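The following block was generated as part of the benchmark described in Methods. Ligand: nicotinamide-adenine-dinucleotide.
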Amino acid sequence: MSILNENISRAEQYLERFGQTGVLNHIAGKCQSALSGDTIETVSPVDLSTLAPVARGTGADIDLAVSAAQEAFLDWSKRSGKERRAILHRVADAIEERAEEIAFCECMDTGQALRFMSKAALRGAANFRFFADQAPSAEDGAALRTPEQMNVTSKRPIGPVGVITPWNTPFMLSTWKIAPALAAGCTVVHKPAEFSPITAKLLVEIAEEAGLPPGVLNVVNGLGEEAGRALTEHKGIKAIAFVGESHTGSRIMAQGAATLKRVHFELGGKNPVIIFDDADIDRAVEAAAFMIYSLNGERCTSSSRLLVQDTIYDEVCERVADIAGRIKVGHPLDPETVVGPLIHPEHECKVLSYFDKARAEGATIAVGGDKIGDAGCYVSPTLFTHAKNDMVIAQEEIFGPVLTAIPFADEQDAVSIANDVPYGLAAYLWTNDLTRAIRMTDALEAGMMWVNSENIRHLPAPFGGVKASGIGRDGGSWSFDFYMETVNVCFPRKVHNPPNLAR
Ligand code: NAD
């Protein structure tokens, strides 16, 4: 049997139980159907076959889950940080033990290639360990003294929180939000994306088997406008950590306004990779191709605009096109595959629509621009050249393996093109001129910048965007700022006489 066939058969074994029982909600430690009994389906983008029916949760299911999270909060928030750390490390161990199952289910549910997803579970476990280690010091604050008084700050978990996640790399992204929330002492109601619900169910099961008490993490599946909306509007939920599209973020902000929700948003991007003619072109080309064609281009930090100095524009475009043309597109469980099928026919349709838009706007499709085959959501890695920054293909987040190349003349031109989008998540800069790198990184509007490399994540560093790309930062101790309230207590250092209003 070929490796691909072996992997497919193992994936079928892992997925079989979901086909039988469906992807149920998980509330207070129990699997349960939606109270209405309604379901939606999760479909594999490999061949559009139905993987499983999925509970279609609504407000009533969210009410139950929030009650469970409120009750569990009374105990979980009072456990010592050391105890939470120990439990969350056990969760990380258990994730590692089931890494293959997580990876295979993720590949079949999302279409992401195994070569990237095999690391997703390990990244998820690393997130749990990293945030677990901060649990014992999460409450710590500062002592701020004057001769008269001593102010002592400390932090306390904000309460039950809602986590709403997208479909692009759902397992890794969920852990990125859930692990710090749990480490901080919050309890969670998680609403996974309707297109990719399976690994959220695995996560809650794994976590409880590893010792996470029931009700600390609850999962309610369903549509954004139903379960998602109800979660954001619930008065028992103190904050919403959301990863998804910018316009959904703005809807969530409006939905949460009546209950004064704290929000943390990781939203869309249209990130530039800027290549100057003094750069190491070999590395720059490979990094640019990697950041748009890995993870199917369904990646918030993808380098979706290739800004190249006009002196080397043709050469760089030719070389990126050459890589794109040679990338293996195929079944996500084939270890050789780089680009798998896009998440869902609806999203595939959106991505394909940009090929016509590019032609209509006068750009050139240097490579790709096609749907591949009839079955499954396969799209060829694509490069648009001769593009201008005011074209739709340069302004909108396509969220597929599609790169738009735009020439620039000099530093000022590069900065003005790079910043001329509504987004500001990431920017990649390639130059060997240090002073130019400093000038450029000072001027670029992005929450994260990488000089002379692709996106390399360092967990202690802040992650997040500016402009329409987000609000708030994850990573380091920034995540804890979101999931905790800072409280100040003032003590007198000498006898204090309050003002006497009657005297
Ligand atoms: P989406 O906004 O359509 O959906 C994300 C989640 O929000 C889903 O669970 C959905 O059900 C839910 N939702 C939708 N409408 C809702 C509503 N009215 N109220 C509450 N919840 C609602 O995003 P998507 O298409 O699943 O994911 C792709 C997007 O995610 C891209 O824009 C991408 O850039 C972004 N993303 C950002 C980051 C980041 O870190 N900045 C990371 C990954 C993905």
